[in-house]
What does this fold into?
Amino acid sequence: MSILVDDFMREAIKEAEQGFAEGGIPIGSVLVQNGKIIGRGHNRRVQNNDPTAHAEIECFRNAGRIGDYRNTVLYSTLMPCSMCAGSAVLFGVPTVIAGENRTFKSSGQWMADNGINVTDLNLDECYELLQKFARLHLKIWNEDIGIAGD
It folds into this structure.
């Protein structure tokens, strides 16, 4: 079965690819309001030496203060972690669309339990990009998902 990737997820994937090209963790995100991208970001934890610089957080930062999130959709190439999911719940984002949730089972159910309409597209493209990064940079990937070690 083939899933049609819409233009917004395609833009999130471009953000992930940009992060990978920069040597960072390849996760990308865009925030859409009324059919227009108002924020975008990619994981910059490595590039900025900032543990909070996840794709979704960077996306929210780049969107700026928009006041009302009721007409937004957050796209992310990976199901948001607890920090990013918490931001979506806090801001009242009604819909989150994730590229995949296989690499790292995260907060999809928690967001749904808190009123967000969550969709997992289960895209091989998103999964394979993260798997490639994990193979090349296992220590950084483990750090990102909270696995301590050398």
